[in-house]
What we know:
The structure holds 3 protein chains of 3 kinds. Helix content of chain A is 36%, strand content 20%. By secondary structure, chain A is of the alpha/beta class. In chain A, strand 1 and strand 2 (35-48) form a beta hairpin. Chain A is globular, with a radius of gyration of 21 Å. Classes of the chains: A alpha/beta, B mainly alpha, C mainly alpha.
Amino acid sequence: xxxxxxxxxxxxxxxxxxPVIELRDAEVVFEMDRGVSRVLDNVTLDIQRNEVLxxxxxxxxxxxxxxxxxxxxVVDPGVLSGQVTYHPADGHPVxxxxxxxxxxxxxxxxxxxxxxxxxMSSFNPTMEVGEHFEETIEAHDYDIGAGMDRxxxxxxxxxxxxxxxxxxxxxxxxxxxxxxxxxALSLVLEPDVLVMDEPTAALDLLxxxxxxxxxxxxxxxxxxxxxFITHDLPLVAELADRLAVMYAFELVExxxxxxxxxxxxxxxxxxxxxxxxxxxxxxxEMRPIEGxxxxxxxxxxxxxxxxxxxxxxxECVASDPAFQAVSDEHSVAxxxxxxxxxxxxxxxxxxVAEDCPQTDKEGECxxxxxxxxxxxxxxxxxxxxxxxxxxxx
Amino acid sequence: xxxxxxxxxxxxxxxxxxxxxxxxLTQISRRQRxxxxxxxxxxxxxxxxxxxxxxxxxxxxxxxxxxxxxxxxVSSSTFWVLENVTILEEPISNQGPQSLQPFxxxxxxxxxxxxxxxILAGVVHATPMMxxxxxxxxxxxxxxxxxxxxxxxxxxxxxxxxxxxxxDVAMTIPGLPLVIVLVVLINPQNPxxxxxxxxxxxxxGIARTIHSQVLTLRExxxxxxxxxxxxxxxxxxxxxxxxxxxxxxxxxxxxxxxxVIYDSVALYFLGILSFQTVENWGVMMNLAYQTAxxxxxxxxxxxxxxxxxxxxxxxxxxxLFAQGTDRLFNPRVRTRQSGRTEPTEDAxxxxxxxxx
Amino acid sequence: xxxxxxxxxQSVFTVWAVATISFGLIRLxxxxxxxxxVARIHESQGSDVPAEVIREQVQHRINIDPNAPIHEAYLQYxxxxxxxxxxxxxxxxxxxxxxxxEALPWTIFLMAISTLLTFGLAxxxxxxxxxxxxxxxxxxxxxxxxxxxxxxxxxAAVLFIAYLGNRTSIFPARGRYPAVVEPGxxxxxxxxxxxHAILPAASFVLTVYGLTALAMRGNSIQILGEDYxxxxxxxxxxxxxxxxxxxxxxxxxxxxxxxxxxIGFMFGGSIILEELFQYPGIGYYMYQAIEYxxxxxxxxxxxxxxxxxxxxxxxxxxxxxxxxPRIKSGDDSESY
Lengths: 393, 356, 336
């Protein structure tokens, strides 16, 4: 397939200097009655050590599948193929898909761990939160005393009171507290990489911001690599060093956050930026993306975005575009990326143009402005908030 | 259970102009409301459930017994023209040779008992009374349970405490001994009455389940909204609560029905309920057990086994029916079985729902 | 603590309510127990028995003075029950309390075996079916469960007696222990008792487990799809721990009420089973009491069965609140 050729020719486009995880042609397939459902389509990607990578896409674009693939944790009837390589800080690279069941159990949570989107339901409702920590430490044969000390430290780092949280049952904690406890649980075995799938989806705005700032300090303190998966582009843009955009189960664009926001080159990325809700934008300027996300059983031929793309032509229908370099740190899978800015102008341009501090050569305002409106609350504030949350349960 | 789906057609909506012209614009006609309720609560679920094999088999069995009861009723009826119609004679002593084995004579296909009664006739003619008992018992238990459960759950406060304490106490009293004591003291004969006595405390357990369901439902936003809008309690119960309780009500209706079969047959079998004729499968078993020595004598065992078959088949049908409703009420099972994905509905659930 | 008090109060209230109901049945019902006894006295001793003699006899048998005003008779009856005086059995010519004390352990023995085996089989089989959802094992076991559930326990008992007891004598079909063995703590006696309990217990277990197994299967399938089970797997927990602590516990909890109800159901069923197997426990004596219109014995057995169920439910409820932390905050979500 074309993707394979792509990986042969354009190696430099996705490689990074010091990758911690390498994905090569990662594919997830479900066999179903009505056909084969390909929910992750040959994704090739490097994750740089200690970076924050944001993976963005609309619902049902395969983001969660990508996250699961990194841990070889695809749910049961799904089959993951391709190559996933983990590079420990010291030692030999590990081929994750070749690991035995035992080694895989060790690899997960010790090297790379994950926070699921369903934080509210990630704890066993009939078990104390503390027991979740203990059983995890025991299952991996870590020292229980040292492990629990680390758990307490992590909880404190996340502005939670360990003496209160550990003996509580999940239903006694608020959503924000559960989310933070879950992050602590995912870091208790000192992994290098933390994959987070919509970690803030069910939280209110204030809590989202505070968790984001907590993540930033955690990353510094524990030398983490963070992979942050979300549909909320403005949110992740604050945190991420790089952004990867997914559409229809494959990557369509990847680059440094600034680059994507300023010069997003895939028509889909541009539409996504225009469709993103923003408190400042007047309602009439928000443009929903026309059409619907494709069915995983029946993905359109060629570029899968062509049925919704204003720039689509015969070439797009006929073959799947390979990645092309926009700049050093920015590549896009589109034949017409150079025409995209004209065809799909950013809709905030008109309004913000005058007081925009920075514009690029096409007169587009740097879209950071669109997102930097909300100041991050002090962690102490967040704590108060969480406590009141918990109090009325 | 088997209401004809043809009445469910919606009436056309009144047009907007007329609605705003009248003061009581929310007064949609009663018939229309029931029509909609019927559509939502009976017809649509029914067509979904029918796709399930368990539902098909279960319902077929139940309908078969209803047909059998109709046949017995027509045969024994003295009403007008039916007086002369007899498809299958009632079981009478010495209508055939004594203790005739099954499949030996075409006149008495399932043989005769030790007093020469036709066993097939006995099985068929016991059906109408059995169905009457089942209907009475199951309706009593479910209506009682639904009333107590919803009122307690919805009203709360003292009402709730009193009703739930009564239910808890009633639930704790072991059913069969209580029924036996009542039967011994009252000696009921009417099948409707027997049915109710058998379910005298069956409702309590169901009421408790429904109560906790109502507690959950009450917190749902749409119920909350209805209450805030000042809609009266009976309307909220009817409109928002009852349709959501249908799974429990249906399933428990079926299980109460099964309970009535088990207990009524047992009461006749043990001779606790008195009888004049072979009016119940339990009576046939009783006679085989007490007078024909069917437990010890292999030659008469068939007299005990044959009346067991309709008991087992009917409860099998009822259980299949109850299991078949599972597809109806559990949306997860429903989509999984129909093989549909829900691509964009649920935020970010990229996992296909149909990986089977 | 508060919970224990409340629950104890409720249990006592239930027993009191049942005792009151049985008093009502005996005393007040037209054609009720009292009338039946009087009729029987006339039957056996002629119609010209002096009223005073009747009164004495009735009081001796059921602790109710037919001539006393209702409230006095009630207090008299309840007082008797509290002292453990259930009246005198006409048919066996023994005190009801003595008969019950002798029979109760056997019923409890039989019920304990049946209940434990039923729940053990149902819960483990249900969970296994859920783990193997859609496989041939699951489908065939579902079919078997539905089929066996359709068989009334007494039908199974009759078949067992006819084919495994009387015809082949693999298992004893009647009695509580071998006739040749003296009761006592001997191996023969204990083994013999279990041997005699096999068929009655099997009649229950094999016909009652099905619905519970199917419910367990459904709940487990649902729990297996929960996020916390997936996370637990990723955290590297052992399958054993996940099956017991995650799936098992969370799947059983919503079924608790129906499990408790089935305990009552089985105790009730002991009347039929013990009669069929000629197993002299509480149920057997209740049946005898009905056959011989022995009212004191009948009401006594009824009360004792009720108390046994109340205690079983109390224990069950107590373990429930231990298992489910949410019960403390009043969130008891149940399903059928």
